[in-house]
């Protein structure tokens, strides 16, 4: 089991950048696929990105390809989401999540076993 805590969310102007962090506790962190999701008010939780257990492969939703980058540091139990060219529609609560490794990417919330509490990102001028 892992416990996850996101941080780094804040207000930013359109076109700006942020890096979100997710700190994990648990001896099995390196065994998990890590995903990032977001959820705006009254909206469904939306998949953004995932990274496999050793950090060598990543997968992104079409809406953020070319703008967001996911990475992980297993030695320090950290996963990151770097966000560039932010738009007002990126405003949401951002969550990291952990899934036990599978042969395919998990792009829906039900595929993930553990979740952080979320961090608010607000993009406005």
Plain-language structure description:
With 125 residues, the chain is mostly beta strands. Helices cover 0% and strands 48% of the residues. Strands 2, 4, 5, 6, 9, 10 and 11 form a seven-stranded mixed sheet that branches. Strands 1-3-8-7 form a four-stranded antiparallel sheet, with no helix packed on it. It is globular and about 40 Å long. The chain starts with a strand and ends with a strand. The mean pLDDT is 94.
Write the layout of secondary structure elements.
Elements: E1 3-7, E2 11-12, E3 18-25, E4 32-39, E5 46-51, E6 58-60, E7 68-73, E8 78-83, E9 92-100, E10 114-115, E11 119-123
Parallel strand pairs: 2-11
Antiparallel strand pairs: 1-3, 3-8, 4-5, 4-9, 5-6, 7-8, 9-10, 9-11
Q: Counting H and I runs of at least 4 residues, what is the number of helices?
A: 0
Q: What ranges have pLDDT less than 50 throughout 5 or more consecutive residues?
A: none
Q: Biggest sheet, in brief?
A: 7 strands, mixed
Beta-strand content estimate? over 45%
Helix content: under 10%
Determine the mean pLDDT: 94
> How many distinct beta strands?
11
Q: Which structural class should the secondary elements be placed in? A: mainly beta
Radius of gyration: 13 Å
Keywords:
125 residues; mainly beta; 7-stranded mixed beta sheet; 4-stranded antiparallel beta sheet
Briefly characterize the structure.
This protein has 125 residues and is an all-beta fold. It contains no helices and 11 strands.
